[in-house]
C-alpha cells in the first residue's frame, strides 16, 4: 500500500462577513455538496471517515460531534470532532488513511463568527483562569506584547508590519472569495485606531463566515478519481508551553518545530527555493513576518525588508498569501487552516484566476490557533 | 498507598470557610452570547409554529417525510425542498417520567418528556428509526396512564402569545 495521501475534492460556502440566510448546518452542506461533486464521490457510499474541527465555546453547543453527521452525509459512519485548527483536522485525515483505517476521508471546518455576540469574553476563556483571567484584560493584549517583543528583538519596523496589510488586502481585490479587499495606503494602516499598542486595529484580521470541506484519498483511489490530485507531502504540528509568563515572545519555536516535521516528511531542504507559494498566518500583520522567519524562508529580522523589496508580492520571488490571507479573506476561526489549504489547492491546480501564481508546483500552508495559544501547524502540498 | 495513612495532613474545608473568604477561589460568570442563524429549514419550521402549523419536508429521492424540516436527507444525501403541513396529532414512541428538573431540583410530580411520532410522517422502518419524531412534553395526563402507542395531540399557546419557538406548543395531551 502506498503512503501517499491526496486532496481529491474541495468545496466551500459563505466567505462573507455575515451569512444570515443559512444555518451553520446548511453552510456545511453547501460546502460538502461542492466538495463531493468536485471529487466525484458519494459520501454515503464512498467515504470511510469524517473529521470536523470545532471548538464548543465558539459553537455554543457542547459535544459538537453530535451536530455534524447529517449535513456531511456521515450518519451511521465514523465521525469525530477535533478541537483544533483545520490543519490538525487535515493531519488526522492523513493519519486515518496512512494507518489503513480509511481510504477516503472528509475533513470539514466552518466559521459562523457572525453568530458570536460576545467573541472577546468567549476568547477570554482561553486564558488561565487563576493566573491571567482575573486581571480582566482583553485577550488581544497577548498579540500586542508579542508584536512589541518581536519588533524589539528583530529590528522589524511598524511600517513593515503595516505593509503586510497593504499587500494582503490588495491581493484580496483579485480574489472573488475574499470579503475584505481594499486599496489602502501605508499611512491609513499606520494611523488607524490602536488595538493593543503597538498593534493597530487595521493590522488585525476581521472575522468572516464560511465552511470548507475537503475530500482526502489514498493514492490508488486518488489516481482513479482524478488526473490532478494535490498531494499532501508533509504535515507537522506543535505546541509550545502555554505560559504567558515564560514563553519566547520574540520567536515562534513551535512553528519552527512544526515546519521541521513537515519538511522532513516532504524531503524539503531549502524552503526559499523549493516552495512556490505560501499561505501563512496573518491574523495580526506582524505575524506574517515573524512566521516567514520561523518557517526558515529567511533569517531572523529579514522578512520585513524582503517584503518591502516586493519579494512576497503576487509576482515576487515567493508570493505570500496571494488569497489575501486572513486580513483580506477574513479570519475563519478554526476553519482558517482549511481556508489556506483551499487557496493552495486552487494555486496548485492552476484555478486561482486573477491571483494565480504562475507555475506553482509546491505550496506551503501554515496556521496558528490565535491568542493566547502557541499551537500551530504546517503542511506541504504539491501537484 | 493511602491505606498507610491514618490521618491525612492539612485541614478539611467547610462551607463556612468559603463564606468567610478563608479559601482562595475565583468566581466567574461566563458571558457567552450567540445569535444562531436559523437558516432555511429550521427558519421555516419556527415560522410555521408561530402560525400554529407543524411543517415537515419530503425527500425527493427516498420519499420519506420528516420533521423538523432540513435541507438535506441524511440517509440518501439528496436535497429536501418539498415542504408539507402536518397534522398536530401523533403516537407516543417513547417517554420517560423525570423526577428532577432542568436545574437539578427533585420533584414529586414528574415531567414527562416524550418522542411523538407525528401522523403523516414516514412509518417506522425495520431499524425503528422514526423519521417524523417531535420531542416535547406530555401534559393533562396521569403519569401512570402514559404508555407507548398512546395517541396524543398538541396543545398550543394562544396565537397572540406565539413567538416562533418550540415552546409555541405547550405540550401534547392524550386524545380521548
Ligand atoms: Zn432521502
Question: Strand fraction band of chain A?
Answer: 15-25%
Count of alpha/pi helices of chain B:
2
CATH topology of the domain at 5-117 and 208-225 in chain A: Peroxisomal Thiolase, Chain A, domain 1
At CATH level 2, the architecture of the domain at 5-117 and 208-225 in chain A is 3-Layer(aba) Sandwich
Report mean pLDDT of chain B, rounded to a whole number.
Answer: 90
Biggest sheet character of chain A:
9 strands, mixed
Approximately how much beta-strand content do the residues of chain B carry? 25-35%
What radius of gyration of chain B results from the CA coordinates? Answer: 24 Å
Radius of gyration of chain A in whole Å, from Cα?
19 Å
Give a structural overview.
The complex is a heterodimer of chains A (383) and B (176). With 383 residues, chain A is α/β, with parallel strands linked by helices. Chain A has a domain at 5-117 and 208-225: Peroxisomal Thiolase, Chain A, domain 1 (3-Layer(aba) Sandwich). Helices cover 37% and strands 19% of the residues of chain A. Chain A has 16 helices and 11 strands. In chain A, a hairpin with a 2-residue loop joins β5 (194-196) and β6. In chain A, α5 (86-98) packs across α16. The longest helix of chain A is centred in the first third of the chain and has 16 residues, at 24-39. The radius of gyration of chain A is 19 Å and the shape is globular. The model of chain A has no long low-confidence stretch (mean pLDDT 97). Chain B has 176 residues and is mainly β. Chain B has one domain (36-174). Chain B has helices spanning 15-19, 39-50, and strands at 54-59, 65-66, 80-86, 89-95, 98-100, 106-111, 113-118, 133-137, 151-156, 169-174. A 5-stranded antiparallel β-sheet of chain B has the order 8-7-4-9-10, with no helix packed on it. A 3-stranded antiparallel β-sheet of chain B has the order 2-1-3. The longest helix of chain B is centred in the N-terminal third of the chain and has 12 residues, at 39-50. Chain B is elongated and about 70 Å long. The A-B interface holds A 19-26, 29, 42-44, 57, 60, 69-71, 73, 75, 112, 114-118, 121-122, 125, 129-130, 133-134 and B 26, 28, 30-43, 70-72, 74-77. Bound molecules: zinc ion. Zinc ion binds at residues 59, 61-62, 64, 73, 75-76, 78 of chain B. The site of zinc ion has 8 residues of chain B, from loops.
